[in-house]
Structure formats: C-alpha cells, structure tokens
Amino acid sequence: MRYGDKLAVDALSLTVERGTITAVLGPNGAGKTTTLETCEGYRRAQAGTVRVLGLDPVRQRAALLPRIGVMLQSGGAWSGARAEEMLRHFARLHAHPQDVGLLMERLALHECGRTPYRRLSGGQQQRLGLALALIGRPELVFVDEPTAGMDPQIRRAVWELLEELRAAGATVVLTTHYLEEAERLADRVHILDRGRLVASGTPLELTRGGTVATIRIVVTQPFPEGAPAELVRALGDGTELTVLDPLSLQLSGPADSSTLATVASWCARHDVLPESLSLGQRNLEDVFLELTGRETL
Ligand SMILES: Nc1ncnc2c1ncn2[C@@H]1O[C@H](COP(=O)(O)OP(=O)(O)OP(=O)(O)O)[C@@H](O)[C@H]1O
C-alpha cells in the first residue's frame, strides 16, 4: 500500500485464525492502521490479495459487513448524536444485536448515555466506539487501539470483554501501543516496522530464548556508595547497569542458576533489604524495542 511515493505496507503476509486474538504491533507510522483499513474494505489493496472470512473486503463488502465489527482509531460517530441513541440505532441495523443496556453497563457508558458524542471525554468516545463495533455480535472484530486513553479499571473491563468474545468463538484483531495488553491478550503477535513484518509468534515464542535476563531491585534506603558497580562486577561480563532512581536499579545481562545467589549475597554484604527484587526474561516490550529500535508511545 502506497500513499503517493510513500510505501506504507510492503509485502506483508499474515493469516489470522478463527477464535483467536491477534495483536498487530509497531511504532507510529509502521502501517498498522493501513493494514486494518485494507482488511475492513476502507482501502483497496494496490497489490496482493486480502481475504476476510473468505470474502474480498471491497468487492464482497455487502456480504462481509454484517459479519464484522470495526472500531476505528477515532471518529465513526455523529457528533451531535447521544451515546445511547447511537448505540440503539446501530443495534437496530443488526439482525441479532447484543442487549444495549447490558453492553452500556459493561463499558460504563450508562453514566453518559444522554451525552452527545462531541461532549464525551476521549475515553468515553473510545468506549462507545468499541460498543458500536461489538453491538452486532460480529464473527470478527477489528479494533484499532481499543484502550488508548482509558483508565486502568475500564481497560481491564475491555480486556475481559475481548477475552469473552474469543471464548464465544469470535476472532479479534487489534492494534495497540500497550505491550502488556498484547502480552496478556494475544494468542499471536505480529510486529510491523516501516511497513514490513519483522516478527510473528505467540508472546511466549517472541520473548523466550533470549540470552539476556533482567534484574530489577527496589530498596527502601539509597544504595551504599559503590555497591551497584560491585554488583555489576559480581555478575560478570556483559552485565549492564541502569540506575533508574536513587532507590531502584535495573541490570540486564547473561543469567544462570547462580545469578540469584550472587544478588542475594551482595544484598547481605551491603546490608541492602530489597523492597522488591525480580529476575525475569525479557518481556514483549524488550523484544519490540530490540526489533524496531525505537520506543513505542
Ligand atoms: N491518508 C494518508 N495519506 C498519506 N500518507 C498516509 C495516510 N495514512 C497513513 N499515511 C502514512 O502511511 C504510513 C503508515 O501509516 P499508518 O497510519 O498505517 O501507521 P500506524 O502503524 O497505524 O501508525 P500509528 O501507530 O501512529 O497509528 C505512515 O508513514 C503515514 O504517515
């Protein structure tokens, strides 16, 4: 897919299995929205083939639309219409809609049902956008950054809703900049960078097999002078230290079965009582940054 001279999506090949949650990740401008919009039939693929539920999303759009739900990154609603009014209207357009009241409650929309769209907060607009995508009980739902701008409670409610959809056999394709969201929800993750697919796999496949472990230590009193540098020496070559603040530090480097004992004896030597201590393999965020070399927002 090109916009003028700009190549937005290039030689992308991916398949999504039914009944799964797939996350499409990538830095800003990687081509995620373009990919989703092409699958949704909003854009015609300039090359290659796109099939959604076996249908051509442009040529067979009328057959496809009743079976899919779409949550755009923004918009898709009438600015003067009230939230509940719009949801009820969308429900009437579908053969077997969900219960409007129930869905509004799940997404905490009952508190703003009478508010016109343009007066909803950013998070409320997002929740309404998701409700509009789900009201028709789609077999497949595309959600572009579903939890952007949502508070942590609502984000969890959205995760549960998406997991219930999957349990009921629906398929979810989402984009997100929250890597813990992808790690928690997705059966498969595809990472795009500059329009190309740079990695695909389950979150476990993508994070496993790293030779680098990360140790995070948070203490209640500042570290004794020189102690962090001594820990780096004790852990050996290849260990990198980041002092996050006077009370917390992070080390990354090769780990083996003696790593934890080394850290524990360093704590005893320096009279350091960790408030928290974690040793873990890299997470999806580490993999993402390694592959794309840029930070996500
Ligand atoms: N309508 C458009 N006209 C011209 N260029 C566009 C248009 N839409 C997207 N692009 C460009 O195509 C590339 C891919 O954009 P796209 O919106 O698909 O990325 P994205 O991964 O969804 O980004 P974000 O995370 O910021 O939403 C970007 O370089 C963007 O500037």
Summarize the structure.
It contains eleven helices and twelve strands. The chain has helices spanning 32-40, 61-64, 83-92, 100-106, 122-134, 152-167, 179-185, 203-207, 227-235, 259-269, 284-292, and strands at 2-3, 6-7, 21-25, 68-71, 140-144, 171-175, 188-193, 196-201, 212-219, 240-245, 248-254, 274-281. The longest helix has 16 residues, at 152-167.
Low-pLDDT residue intervals, each spanning 5 or more residues: none
Main sheet? 6 strands, mixed
CATH class of the largest domain: Alpha Beta
By CATH, the topology of the largest domain is Rossmann fold
CATH homologous superfamily annotation of the largest domain: P-loop containing nucleotide triphosphate hydrolases
From the alpha carbons, calculate the radius of gyration and give it in angstroms: 23 Å
Question: Would you kindly provide a written description of the structure presented here, covering whatever features stand out?
Answer:
The structure is a single chain. The chain is 34% helix and 22% strand. It has helices at residues 32-40, 61-64, 83-92, 100-106, 122-134, 152-167, 179-185, 203-207, 227-235, 259-269, 284-292, and strands at residues 2-3, 6-7, 21-25, 68-71, 140-144, 171-175, 188-193, 196-201, 212-219, 240-245, 248-254, 274-281. The protein is an alpha/beta fold. The strands form three sheets. Strands 4-5-6-3-7-8 form a six-stranded mixed sheet, sandwiched between helices. The longest helix is centred in the middle third of the chain and has 16 residues, at 152-167. Adenosine-5'-triphosphate (ATP) binds at residues 3, 6, 8, 26, 28-34.
